[in-house]
Amino acid sequence: MPRPDRTSERREELLPIVAEAFARLGYRRATTATLAARCGVRENVLYRLWPDKKAMFLASMRYVYDRAERIWEERAAEGPEGTTARRLLEYESRHLGEFGLYRILFAGLSETDDPEIRGHLRDTYRRFHRWIRRRVEAHDRLRGARLGPEADLIAWAVVGLGTVANVGREIDLFPARLRARLIAEAGRLLLEGGAP
Amino acid sequence: MPRPDRTSERREELLPIVAEAFARLGYRRATTATLAARCGVRENVLYRLWPDKKAMFLASMRYVYDRAERIWEERAAEGPEGTTARRLLEYESRHLGEFGLYRILFAGLSETDDPEIRGHLRDTYRRFHRWIRRRVEAHDRLRGARLGPEADLIAWAVVGLGTVANVGREIDLFPARLRARLIAEAGRLLLEGGAP
DNA sequence: GTATAATGTAAGTGTATGCTTACATAAATA
DNA sequence: TATTTATGTAAGCATACACTTACATTATAC
Questions:
Q1: Alpha carbons A20 and A38: distance in angstroms, whole number
Q2: Which nucleotide is nearest to A28 (CA to C1')?
Q3: I need a labelling partner for B75 at 20 to 30 A (CA). Which of A54, B20, B33, B133 fits?
Q4: What CA–CA distance (Å, rounded) separates A96 from B160?
Q5: CA distances from A190 to A87, B37, B46, B152, B191 (A)
């Protein structure tokens, strides 16, 4: 007799908007009032979908990472496996940070005192790292043995490269052109290792 | 007839404590109440030394960076110039983040909507980069021409390396041992470029 | 000693914000 | 149509926090 429960559909509708707000404003500045306003609803509507603001943020983090990974997977599938790492560097050098992943991660990094946020952040970074490492390993397999540090370390260094590139974009550290070269050239150096 | 003005001395006394609080707690969690409590004074005492909380934060950022650079300079002076870059990587791999530099920078990254904080952040990162670039160039001079990307890009990649290493420390991404190897080995790879 | 300004103490103020409550309305089934 | 529950609206609450005000106390120069 009652109306059907559309809670989960509603969550899926609003999550992209909420995530966008967190990415753009950071955790603190994205107040529940602004989140609701951007969604075109009242605050209590959000509170019917998630228990509290933190849950909204954690859901946003997962959503943004999943979306980014999905895009990378699509790009990866567009060519032969061994060249994936190089093609992705190329792609990122042009579309860096479009999906708000780093912005959300940065926002989370200011809330590391909260064990739950901290934990989710750790999980996300680990997934990120694992994904990159797999590409580096595939690259190595094609190229033969690696001379420099193993794929694990290289993958972390690539994460660092992406991070500094995004920090740079965030605070206008360097022009877009240099940012693209940074990812492409330094990334290639890391990938190719000590080989000539 | 009045008492002598000890304002600037007092600032120098309290700034390290304030900076430590910002580094440890981040911008938002470091409330003016806790800042004052840690300094062993009342809030209005701090407000007599700085116009507002933001000024306290910016002063802290400058203080922490200056201190970190001073330490690096000391370490750099301890050996021949050409080996500085390598020795500093070695040093950082062991003492990473001890001075709270990255923590303050992360805290600032969540406040990038404020143009003043943003500007100071940019300045600090640029000083950081310039300092590293000089070491990379000195290293290159000793070693002969560079085969890979130029020193400018390499220096940014090294900043990224330090960043990811500090993120890792912040949220327990990997054990200290791997962190040290990350800095030492990936750093070395970046420094040596495509050379064998 | 006394005038003067710096320093310390204590309490308060206005506002922002996470979250809740009370109530009206809408839609679906029986 | 009647009943039941989801959905929307509006207002409010409690707290935290940046910042201020009022006043007592101290140390210095004369």
A1: 10
A2: C17
A3: B20
A4: 15
A5: 14, 47, 47, 16, 11
Q: What is the spatial distance between Cα A168 and Cα A96, in angstroms, rounded to a whole number?
A: 11
Among all chains, which residue has been given the structure tokens 């990038």? B112
Q: How many CA atoms lie within 13 A of B136 on its CB side?
A: 26
**Measuring CA to CA, which residue among A153, A160, A168, A166 is closest to residue A186?**
A160
Residue labelled with tokens 């926002």: A107
What digits encode the pLDDT tens for the residues A29-72?
Answer: 899 999 999 999 999 999 999 999 999 999 999 999 999 999 99
- Structure tokens belonging to residue A158: 């690539």
Residues B185/B161, Cβ–Cβ less than 8 Å: no
Instruction: Name the residue of chain A whose CA is nearest to B121's CA.
Output: A171
**Greatest distance between any 2 Cα atoms in chain A:** 73
pLDDT tens-place string over residues B118-170: 999 999 999 999 999 999 998 888 888 777 788 999 999 999 999 999 999 98
Helices and strands, counts by H and E, chain A: 10, 0
Judge: A194–B190 Cβ closer than 8 Å, yes or no: no
State the Cα–Cα distance between residues B130 and B148, nearest whole angstrom: 19
CB contact under 8 A, A28 and B29: no
What pLDDT, on the 0 to 100 scale, is given for residue B196? Answer: 47
**DSSP secondary structure letter of residue A96:** T
Burial class (CB in 10 A: 0-12, 13-18, 19+), B6: exposed
Bases in strand C with any atom closer than 7 Å to a protein CB: 2-12, 16-22, 26-30
